[in-house]
Design goal:
Helices cover 81% and strands 0% of the residues. By secondary structure, it is mostly helical.
Length: 178
């Protein structure tokens, strides 16, 4: 259990550092996110995330990171050394090939996780742009409403002045005394 926490911590540290490096380079237009052109939409990344190869690599990485994988290898190694069906050199070649493939699948899985992070970042950027646009529209609406209220206020003041002026005038029923 402690080993898995360490692995997660290391992976989190790796992801955080990678994310900071990529963001700095993106700000200076040094690189584009994972080979995608500027203006890439989250939907485009989503297609890449759901590719058959990526899902297969995730499945293999998950299974190779389980205790069943360890149990299988303990049994396989024990059987090999008990029965020795072929030379140890050939066995070493098989182990080397397995290590190469597992390392490749793990790297594919890590790249996929980085792609997920990029997808989330792009999605957040799109949401932020939409919120900013909506905020600007709301501010414009508030300014329009404020202008309308000011116009109504001025009209009311004008009407009150007219009414006051009419109240000061003598009415026809009131005749001046002579």
């Amino acid at each position: 259990m402690a080993g898995s926490r360490t692995t997660w911590w290391v992976d989190g540290l790796y992801t955080r550092e990678l994310k900071l490096i990529v963001k700095k380079k993106l700000e200076h237009h040094e690189i584009l996110p994972l080979g995608f052109p500027q203006g890439t939409r989250p939907e485009q990344l989503l297609k890449k995330l759901h590719s058959v190869e990526g899902r297969l690599a995730d499945i293999i990485t998950r299974s190779s990171g389980s205790m069943y994988f360890v149990y299988f290898h303990v049994i396989a190694f024990s059987l090999f050394f008990i029965f020795t069906p072929f030379e140890v050199g050939i066995f070493n070649i098989f182990l080397s090939l397995e290590a190469v493939f597992l390392a490749t699948f793990i790297m594919i899985s890590q790249n996929r996780q980085a792609l997920v992070e990029t997808y989330r970042d792009l999605e957040e950027d799109v949401e932020q742009e939409e919120e900013d646009k909506e905020q600007e529209e709301l501010e414009e609406d508030v300014q329009d409403i404020q202008k309308d209220l000011d116009d109504i206020k001025n009209a009311m003041a004008f009407i009150q002045q007219k009414i006051s002026g009419l109240e000061k005038l003598p009415t026809s029923s009131e005749k001046p005394k002579s």
